[in-house]
Every structure is written in C-alpha cells, then in structure tokens.
Amino acid sequence: MVIGITMLKVNHGREIEVYHALKNLNGIREIYRILGAYSIFVIMQAKDQFFLDQLIEEIRNTPDVTDFWHILFSNDAYEAEIASPDRAET
Prior knowledge:
The protein is 32% helix and 37% strand. The chain has helices spanning 15-23, 49-60, 76-83, and strands at residues 2-10, 28-33, 40-46, 65-75.
C-alpha cells in the first residue's frame, strides 16, 4: 500500500466545489479545506504506485485545481514505523 500526501491550490471561490468533487474519489483517505497559500490538503491511499499515479492524474484534471504539491509518499512499513502509537520512546 502507498500513501500520498499533497496540497492543492484552486481557483478563488471554487474551494467548496473542488472539495466536494474530490472527497468521494476512490483513494482519498482524508481531505481538509485549509487557509493559506494552498486551499486543500489531501491524504491519498492506493494499493501501489500505479494506482496512486492514476489518482493524482484524476486530481490534477479536476476543474479549478491550479497547482498541486506533493509533500510525502511512503509505504505501509514506513508509515507503521513512524506512526505506531504502541512504540514507546526510550
């Protein structure tokens, strides 16, 4: 499994429409409207890089998306290593 995290810029005044267009796409794990230089923060999940690339392309082709910035791509093993609540710091 592959996790992708990205931020989107959208045309001014179209944030709600883009949010609703993306929130039900297969592979969108979480989506948030944010303030600042970027309008939308997205966490994506796919079974492999091929399907994540397809999702990214679908997001890029969404009307009113003007810029797309990837923050992180990781695999499950890495995610489990950094995100496990069971790990005790010593």
